[in-house]
Design brief:
The protein has about 150 residues and is mainly β. It has one domain: Sandwich (Jelly Rolls), CATH 2.60.120.600. It is built from two helices and nine strands. Strands 1, 2, 4, 5 and 8 form a five-stranded antiparallel beta sheet that branches. The chain is globular and about 45 Å long.
Length: about 150
């Protein structure tokens, strides 16, 4: 990813806050899925753009993601009428969304185009350029995103 100076640093720069989860496996059973939730940092003004993505651990390959433009309104389903809901998001990640909205399907492949059923994965959270400071938001000034994993076990 090019930074402001035009140098491709292929990773984290001062323009991004970058967090990730521990690793987990995601099967293809319909009862197994992730609920990802947190503060939409773009809505609060702490970032000009934010996103989340799922990466395979073995190849460090990002295979699916969603950004703040799709987060809008997803918190209101869980907190109807609450004025703070517009600053929150809730997103589902699974192998098969079956037409659900606010859901991202995680492919199994081939190769680096997916994450195998027996491979581990992790979620990455990024927030870019706070408008006021022109750098990534301070880690001490943002609420960290969370992931809940559900399965039949």
């Amino acid at each position: 990813m090019p930074c402001r100076e035009g140098i491709d640093v292929i990773g984290v720069t001062h323009e991004i806050s970058y967090l990730n989860t521990t690793t987990f496996k995601l099967g293809d059973d319909p009862s197994e899925f992730l609920i990802v939730y947190g503060v939409n940092h773009a809505a609060t003004g702490k970032a000009s753009y934010s996103n989340l993505g799922i990466f395979g651990s073995r190849l460090d390959n990002g295979v699916a993601g969603v950004d703040n433009r799709r987060f809008e309104g997803t918190g209101e389903e869980y907190l109807p009428g609450n004025p703070a809901a517009k600053y929150l998001y809730v997103w589902k990640m699974t192998r098969n969304c079956s037409g659900e909205v606010n859901c991202t399907e995680v492919p199994t492949g081939p190769g680096s185009y997916g994450i195998g059923l027996n491979d581990t994965a992790y979620i990455v959270f990024r927030a870019y350029n706070e408008k006021e400071t022109a750098v990534g938001p301070s880690y001490t000034e943002i609420a960290y995103d969370r992931v809940l994993k559900f399965d039949s076990v």
